[in-house]
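Batch job 17 of 40 flagged for manual review because the log was empty.
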Amino acid sequence: MADNVTSLFRSTAAHSPSMAALARESDGAGPVDFCIPCNPYFPTPAMFEEMAARLREIITYYPSGADTITAELCSLLQLPPQCVAMGNGSTELITWIDHLLVRESLAVPVPTFGRWTDQPMETGKRVDMFPLQESSGFALDLAQYAEFIRARGTRVAVICNPNNPDGGFLHKHAIVQFMDAMADLDLVVVDESFLEFADAENEPSVVQEAMLRPNVIVLRSLGKNFGLHGIRFGYLVANPALAGRVRSMLPKWNLNSFAEHVVFMLKEHGAEYAQSLHQVRRDRMDMSGQLSSLPGLTVYPSQGNFLFVRLPVGAEGTVVRDRMLTEHRILVRECGNKIGSSSRFLRLVVRPQVDVRRLVSGLEQVLYGTSRRGAAVPGPATGTGYSSGTAAVDRLVSETNGSGTRGLAAQAVGAGTAPGIAAAPAAGTGMPLPAAVSAAPADTFGGMPMPAAASPAPPQPQAPRPAPRRATSPLVTVTAPAAAAQPGHEPGEPGSTAAPFPPACTPLGADAVPLNVWVFSARLSSSALPQA
């Protein structure tokens, strides 16, 4: 059984196997799920009972048309229906955005949600990937990102806020400034799929600003925050012309009867929904504290309903993942197949404290050898390394970059800071955050107006991201042979002079302009996408 289950992870490309697939290969009972980023507190048990009582009716009959369901959602969110398009999951909307609005190129920070890299590559677009630096806590510097977009000549820019898998958060003021600076692009997409779990700002969404701009789309999920991934529903917000263009391509019945039933239930359960978000935020703080107590484990601050963690030196994520599943029936998200990440990282979904205690206990046994199979973390004298990347990263670097990175550096010579974006601060210091905005009304529904019954609890204070550590060099400086790591560091670790990507990536010369980014560009067909 164990071999059958773990083999599923080698055949799912950039995603984890479904819970149904895992259940079929086991005894029929799914594991404790720390992989799929789902709200564990919503819907309430009473809501599930109501849906179960109407199951026959829901699955027997056609749903209403998408316009009817969209109108009900817009009434709840107080948004104009002409500015909204609902999709069968946010991935359906990403697909249509790519087909209709991405003509030649798209820029996106990595690591991120896999469809933002895979989808445009499948249709032959150039994807300009802006790697987030581990040395700065994976924080996205919007000024540097804007410079990167200008240097590449990219026509579409994507921002995920919070970002998946690291949970990095950008304040509303900074995103609006970026949107205005990119007003000449074909499109700017702000993916807010996890924003309702954030508590760093009272009104973090930019949906209102998007409706007033000609080239901005905001993407939002319903399955994640409502705890209903299986229903497949999400929506986008844009000016009427953009929203209408996407809406006109969608089938009349692209939303199912479960989606309709849930949308029409929401107005009666606003208070329970708000409480569920508040509980997830509290659990996130508690879970972060418990995980941070594990020796050698680094936990990055997050505003999503998940935590991004770096395993101790020498631990291989695939081994930890497989042993957690087979020995402890716990499913974790190993991030080695995410472009820009490696098998050294896990993404762990926020769950109730009783589950977190089981997770921590399992990690202690797997990582430090308190189980009969011994430790996944080798002793200090073994010298065991870990994968500095994955097949996904290696293939992109070796097949698409080559000597092109040196040419990119040459393009950047003389390129100043993008208009409208504050100049980038010294390397590794990040972008200054704006002052806190004024408090939002008490009744909000994920950053937008909410039914009067709902009254979210006050937000918990957000721990600051760790102070960035200045990288040894702002450029990739791999030579042959590669520079040796400093004592006590693995290749690619902060403080190491060895590059975290393989030598197949042609280095930028020492005389190149310091972009402080590693550049990956891809124009791949679907046949060239990373496989297991």
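Reviewer: the log was empty due to a logging misconfiguration, but the result itself is present. The chain has a mean pLDDT of 76. Unflagging and moving on to job 18.
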